[in-house]
């Protein structure tokens, strides 16, 4: 009987992380949401800190997009800005969704938050739009 010379290859587990393309504005909104809404134990704060680092704008990117503050408003050159693909694990996605939904319940979402809502809670956003349309009929 002949032994098989075929090597067994280890199967990779599928990556549970989700990749989301975020523009500068979306990243700044998410930084605010994570910073203001994350409360909990040390492990949770560490996760929030790691997300804030990934969402951040490094010095090279800040120079490339001409990031500046003008009377308290953050501005950048849109033509130079590119979306950044960031990966979030299911737990991080859950934290972001929970934060956005609680902000919606508390009625503290702003127009600036809408782009992030479209990316992280699209089903809930669509439901809210449908409910509003039915209420006005």
Task: Please describe the topology of this protein.
Layout: E1 18-22, H1 24-37, H2 42-55, H3 59-64, E2 68-70, E3 73-75, E4 84-88, H4 90-105, H5 114-120, H6 122-135
Antiparallel strand pairs: 1-4, 2-3
The coarse silhouette is: globular
Major beta sheet, strand line-up: 1-4
Q: Supply Rg.
A: 20 Å
Pattern of helices and strands: EHHHEEEHHH
The N- and C-terminal alpha carbons lie at a distance of 78 Å
Report helical residue fraction: 40-55%
User: What number of structural domains do the residues give?
Assistant: 1
Q: SS-based structural class? A: mainly alpha
Mean pLDDT: 87
Strand percentage: 5-15%
* Major sheet: 2 strands, antiparallel
Give the number of helices: 6
Low-confidence stretches: none
Number of strands: 4
Task: Please characterize this protein's 3D structure.
The chain is mostly helical and about 140 residues long. It has one domain (about 20-135). Helix content is about 50%, strand content about 10%. The protein is built from 6 helices and 4 strands, in the order βαααβββααα. The protein has helices spanning about 25-35, 40-55, 60-65, 90-105, 115-120, 120-135, and strands spanning about 20, 70, 75, 85-90. The chain has a two-stranded antiparallel ribbon with strand order 1-4. Strands 2-3 form a two-stranded antiparallel sheet. Strand 2 and strand 3 (about 75) form a beta hairpin. Helix 1 (about 25-35) packs antiparallel against helix 2 (about 40-55) and helix 1 (about 25-35) crosses helix 4. It is globular, with a radius of gyration of 20 Å. The model has no long low-confidence stretch (mean pLDDT about 85).
């Amino acid at each position: 009987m002949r032994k098989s010379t075929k090597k067994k290859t280890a199967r990779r587990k599928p990556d549970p992380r989700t990749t989301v393309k975020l523009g500068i504005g979306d990243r700044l909104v998410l930084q605010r949401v994570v910073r203001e809404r994350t409360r909990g134990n040390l492990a949770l704060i560490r996760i929030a800190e790691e997300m804030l680092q990934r969402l951040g704008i490094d010095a090279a990117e800040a120079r490339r997009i001409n990031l500046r503050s003008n009377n308290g408003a953050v501005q950048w050159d849109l033509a130079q800005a590119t979306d950044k693909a960031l990966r979030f694990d299911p737990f991080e996605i859950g934290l972001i969704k929970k934060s956005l939904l609680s902000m919606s319940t508390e009625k503290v979402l702003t127009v600036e938050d809408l782009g992030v809502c479209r990316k992280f809670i699209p089903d809930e956003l669509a439901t809210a739009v449908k409910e509003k349309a039915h209420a006005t009929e």
